[in-house]
Structures are given as C-alpha cells and as structure tokens.
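A.,

Following up on our hallway conversation. Structure tokens first:
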C-alpha cells in the first residue's frame, strides 16, 4: 500500500480538502452538541418547536402522510427504548450472572439505567424531525394515502405497545422517571 492510499489522503500524503472540510464540520457539530448538553429544557423546547413547524408544514401542504407516519413510529420506538431498562430483567430472571433490578422491599437499591439515555433520545428525535422536514421538499415522498387509517393504526399501535411496556414495568417493578 502506498503512502497516499489511506482514507482521506491525497496523492501527496496530506489530507484532502474535502476530508478536512467534513472533519472540521463534524468537530463544529460536536462542539455545539457538547455546549447544548446542560440545557435540557431548552433542547426539548427547540425540538417541540421544530415538531410544531413540521406539523404546520404538513397541514398546509396537505400531504406527506407516510413520512409523518414513519416519523411517529420512529419516535414511538425511541420512547419505548427511553422507558426500558438497559438490562432487561426478563432476560436476567434465569441467570444470576449480572445486575438485576430489586424485586423485594429489602433488596439493595439499584438506580434505573435507561437503554436510551435522555440526550441520545433528544438527539435522535430531533434528527428524525429534520429528516422528515427535508423529505417534505421532495414530491417522491408524497405518496397518496387515506390518512385517517394511518392515524387509527398509529393510535392502536401506540396503545398496544404502551400497554405491553406498562405491564413489563409493573411485573419487574421499575419506574423509569
């Protein structure tokens, strides 16, 4: 392998302009994420604002219901991961290899550790809204559907999923909040 064959390097062994540009862009993005970490309420208000702008855009354009449905399913999956413990107690029931949640009053307290931390939940939800917003600029994603069926199906899916999650929380006695 020659000197210029590695990823992101030009023929002369220095990083290419494109590689340096995207590296710098990634550093700036990460810097903004790091600065926003302590401001939980502000982050969520901005995300709710983006969500509101997205909903208004979909309402005014009268379309992109499949994209909105996919965004709803994605947010539901993120929310379930946010409510779930990192180590599923149903898998730990048979073996005593790792930590488990306390099931009796006199057992040792172990803090609830989420499968999806709040910051990653916020970050993924915000990126999902932005991707859905970008999709509304392309007619290829505007698939004609009868939207009330999608709304009813989403409501049914939400109720069934949350019922299963709440039963799991009651059975293994953990509260994610």
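Then the amino acids I'd put at each of the 177 positions:
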């Amino acid at each position: 392998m020659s000197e210029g064959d590695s990823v992101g390097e030009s023929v002369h062994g220095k990083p290419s302009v494109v590689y340096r540009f995207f590296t710098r862009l990634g550093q700036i993005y990460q810097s903004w994420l790091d600065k926003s970490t302590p401001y939980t309420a502000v982050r969520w208000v901005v995300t709710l604002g983006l969500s509101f702008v997205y909903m208004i855009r979909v309402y005014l354009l009268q379309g992109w219901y499949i994209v909105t449905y996919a965004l709803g399913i994605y947010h539901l999956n993120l929310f379930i991961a946010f409510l779930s413990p990192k180590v599923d107690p149903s898998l730990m029931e048979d073996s005593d290899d790792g930590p488990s949640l306390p099931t009796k009053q006199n057992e040792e307290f172990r803090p609830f550790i989420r499968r999806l931390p709040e910051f990653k939940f916020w970050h993924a939800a915000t990126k999902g809204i932005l991707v859905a917003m970008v999709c509304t600029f392309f007619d290829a994603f505007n698939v004609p559907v009868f939207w009330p069926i999608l709304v009813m199906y989403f409501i049914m899916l939400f109720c069934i999923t949350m019922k299963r999650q709440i039963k799991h929380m009651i059975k293994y006695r953990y509260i994610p909040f």
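Residues 147-172 form the longest helix (26 residues). Curious whether your intuition agrees with the design.

B.
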